[in-house]
Amino acid sequence: MSTQHPELDALRERVRAAAADRTPLTIRAGGSKAFYGNRCDGARLDPRGYSGIVDYAPTELVITARCGTPLADIEAAVAAERQMLPFEPPRFAAGGAQATLGGMVAAGLAGPRRVATGSLRDFVLGASLLDGRGEVLAFGGRVMKNVAGYDMARTLAGSLGTLGVLLDVSLKVLPLPPAECTLRFELDEVTAIRRLNEWGGQPLPISASAWCDGVLLLRLSGARAGLSAARTRLGGGPVGDAAASVLWADLREQRHAFFGAGDDTALWRIAVPPTTPPLNLGRTLIEWHGGQRWLVAGCDAQTVTRIRDAASAAGGHATRFRGGDAAVPAFHPLAPAVAQLNARLKQAFDPAGIFNTGRMHALA
Question: Mean pLDDT across the stretch 31-47?
Fold first, then answer.
């Protein structure tokens, strides 16, 4: 990564001045995911001027770009080589124009394909960070075999800008599947969860699943011969290619009718082991073979306790993902040992406490 860039110099000076005065900064590029996490106050630090694809090696399945690069540019570049970001990241913005690479990594979110390929952090090979001292730190490398600092690069994924300003990121990409098809089944929630876990343990090319209101949808990805054999084995009714493309995009971007919560409700994201039976908390949309469950519910104290207790009892956690009472902490309370680790990381990377403080947890 080159440290010679006028926008990088400007970011460095801004951070150093803020650290000296202990002036809080809110890192915000396009703001497509500004709703996610707790409210944090501070002067806006916009890194979009630091942008551009630094290196793309299609034969090595690696792309490196600066944080302000529009996500649409990244996806267009890899699509031109019949490749993709395997975790299918959401943009959460009209047309996706506002979403940036840095915001994508900082949020750490993945779409429907995550159940088959893995999470965003699984594909972060390396990253550089502008820390709270105004110093540039580099972690990892541009190829998978270079694992020095690999865990730290992955830690930055989902950190919501609480440790510093992401600068450059190297990501592994994968080839687009040769073919895809979607199947539809009419199943109740109990049966859908059972079937998904049965199928998940078999050599089937399932790349996404979603259940809501008695309908289970499966997306298959791979060679045409494999898809044909899987369709015969699974049964179900086919969904047209055009309709299926819209359907999975709407689920990824939360344009599906399920996500149209009212002003007095919140969208909750509940992460639990896939085999967890129905939580019976209200109307639910299930993804990732049962591992991710979306719930539209209130934010009163009794409801929050009921949701988070149910998630904890199942061995998971519940996030107030969008909407509801902003006074309700967005993220599930941390175990004491994890909270201490978070506090140590924050102190190490941001000793003056200027970056997105409180966006994740009180100690962050």
Answer: 94
